[in-house]
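Ops channel
N.P.: pipeline sanity check, posting one input/output pair.
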């Protein structure tokens, strides 16, 4: 594969490197007993259509999370999804999440799995700012338990869209969680 072919492949996938600074995220369901959930989340999000001009898309997110520390990796999210883009604003998603997690202060790693349908509304303000609202229902299970938990998540997000070769963007969000069944 030539260098130009590689560039075209990367451009076609439209990778988006997202660096998030988490300010107010409370992950009590994952890290019981922790009150300080500030940290750094860095990730790669790859998204594209299945076919040219199709309303069906795929999305793959890989996100290492430094949740209670900027230096200790505690969780890695791997989340493939498909979604239907109804129009420029509304999309309907179905995804799966795999979360290998090492709680702070331990060496034990366990797996959390999630299945999640979601509805998302996006709007652009100019060509540099995107505002989003996302409603997601999650069905969750941990490797050390047969119990299944569910929760509703509501997220509000602002993205400063990058306009360069790597499409680097900056993202800030606030998300609320409502546990339905633990």
């Amino acid at each position: 594969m030539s260098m130009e072919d590689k560039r075209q492949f990367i451009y076609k996938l439209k990778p988006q490197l997202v660096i998030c600074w988490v300010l107010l995220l409370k992950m009590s369901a994952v890290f019981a007993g922790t009150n300080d959930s500030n940290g750094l989340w860095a990730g790669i999000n790859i998204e594209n259509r299945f076919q040219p001009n199709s309303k069906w898309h795929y999305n793959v997110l890989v996100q290492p999370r430094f949740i209670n520390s900027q230096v200790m990796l505690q969780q890695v999210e791997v989340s493939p999804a498909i979604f239907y883009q109804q129009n420029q604003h509304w999309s309907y998603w179905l995804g799966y999440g795999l979360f290998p997690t090492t709680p702070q202060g331990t060496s034990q790693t366990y797996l959390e799995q999630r299945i999640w349908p979601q509805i998302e509304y996006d709007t652009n303000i100019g060509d540099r700012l995107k505002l989003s609202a996302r409603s997601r229902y999650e069905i969750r299970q941990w490797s050390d338990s047969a119990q299944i938990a569910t929760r509703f998540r509501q997220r509000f997000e602002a993205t400063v869209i990058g306009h360069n070769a790597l499409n680097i963007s900056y993202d800030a969000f606030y998300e609320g969680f409502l546990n339905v069944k633990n």
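N.P.: looks fine end to end. Helices lie at 3-13.
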